[in-house]
Amino acid sequence: MTTPPLFPGFDGLMTLSRREGVDIRPTLLRVLTDLYVQANAHNDEEERQFVELASRLIDEVDDATLSAVRARLAIYPGTPAEVLRKLGLRPATSDHRLPLAEIPLGPSVTAPLSPLGEAEFRMASNISMQPKDAAEINERFSHANPGERALILSKLQDAPLRASAPIPAARARRAIETLEMAAFAVDVENFIFELSESLILPWRVATDVVNDPGGEPLACAAKALEMPSEVFQRVLLFLKPEFGSSVHTVYRLSRLYEQLAAARLRPGCTLGS
Questions:
Q1: Which of 91, 112, 186, 192 is most buried as measured by Cβ atoms within 10 A of its Cβ?
Q2: Would residue 140 count as lying in a domain?
Q3: 64-104 pLDDT tens trace
Q4: Counting beta carbons within 10 angstroms of the beta carbon of residue 22, is it exposed (0 to 12), middle (13 to 18) or buried (19 or more)?
């Protein structure tokens, strides 16, 4: 029996990455590593696939991604020796332990001058948009095709709408971590619950955002939380098979995500709800 590909669609994603200019290589390497270390052991064909795919990416990603991957694989007993060497690690022996990689801390984030508390955030959220204008845009958006939706989103900066209140940074960080874990576990129900809680959306609205077949409302919701692009890409790859299995969809939404302005996008009262 032929061993199924470790990462279906890998070559297609790499081709589009080169052609379309959206660098998905860091996400691919992280996801590939996460998939590999989930299993306690691998057969020869799975190991060969991992060595081949990982080796293609290791030389092409940023230092932060390399550090994260190195840390995961340094403590995984089944990491192929060739990959260890490529990462600058020694294969385990009776006399040596694998060195643990350190993940460099990201740049410090400066707190806003007047951070909103939970109560102030809820009050500001209720007056963030002019209802009539938002409703009209939402109606058009809901019935638009992907190209039209992208155009609507690109024009939001010029729309007569107030920017949404910023989501408290601590809440956003917690939500992003929880959403990524739920996506990785393909736990759509918990993903919807966390999205509803973090953006103060009714359950029905959060469900519609996640289940929208185009994916644009999901991109808007993630951008409202200022989810990092690489995390959003992992959400796309894992949360819903219809997204993750489509190279075109992953790239279309990744490119759209890079163009969104977070301050305009809280889907609780607009876009796809």
A1: 192
A2: yes
A3: 788 888 888 888 888 999 999 988 887 755 444 444 444 34
A4: buried
Same domain, 77 and 156: no
Cα–Cα distances in angstroms (integers) from residue 161 to residues 130, 133, 142, 157, 265, in the given order: 6, 7, 18, 8, 11
Residue 120 lies in a domain: no
| Dist. CA 53–CA 25, nearest whole Å | 11
Are residues 154 and 78 both part of a single domain?
Answer: no
Segments in 116-273 forming alpha helices (H): 118-126, 131-142, 146-155, 169-184, 188-199, 203-211, 216-224, 229-238, 241-244, 247-259
Q: Where in the sequence is the domain holding 48, given as residue range(s)?
A: 10-86
pTM over 0.70: no
* Of 137, 130, 153, residue with least CA distance to 215: 153
Q: How many domains does the chain have?
A: 2
CA distance 21 to 251: 10
- The pLDDT value recorded for residue 174 is 92
Residue (of 228, 224, 273, 232) closest to 250 by Cα position: 232
